[in-house]
Amino acid sequence: MLIIADLEEQKALVPHIVKSGIDGIVSDHGNEEIDRIVLSVQADSDCLLMHQRGFYALSSKGQFYLTGSLLIVLPNDEYEALKMYETAQKLCRCCQTKIIYIACQDYFLSKRGKRLSEITDGPCKQAYLLMKGE
């Protein structure tokens, strides 16, 4: 699943996703706002918070820690977003990890010649549609 959400929408959605029982969250290193939100609600859950480097290291060596469900907050950089996406897809294939991606926009991935929504398994939702019921 892919959720398109600006930073304000991400800040509103992430606590709900953490409280729903997600096993881990991966965010880019510079996303301090998301980190603060996760840490504030993390005390009530067993959610693992990691940054890109830790995610890459664990995905190659410690895949056990990345099983279950992950929320991946994609960075604003197209190259880094594609790298995180491709790493996550490998996890999906080998570990049956369920992944929800959040991106600030539906990137056009020039390396693939497609938009992120076209290569992501599952639905693509705008954040305001998900938050409508609040």
What does this structure look like?
The chain has about 130 residues and is of the alpha/beta class. Helices cover about 45% and strands about 20% of the residues. It has helices at about 5-20, 30-40, 50-60, 80-95, 115-120, 125-130; strands at about 1-5, 25, 50, 70-75, 100-105, 110, 115, 125. A six-stranded parallel sheet has the order 3-2-4-5-1-8, sandwiched between helices. Strand 4 (about 70-75), helix 4 and strand 5 form a beta-alpha-beta unit. The two termini are about 20 Å apart.
Helix content: 40-55%
The poorly predicted ranges are none
Sheet having the most strands: 6 strands, parallel
Going by CATH, the homologous superfamily would be: 4-hydroxy-3-methylbut-2-enyl diphosphate reductase, catalytic domain
The average pLDDT value, as a whole number, equals 81
Record the strand order, biggest sheet: 3-2-4-5-1-8
Number of domains: 1
Put simply, the count of helices is: 6
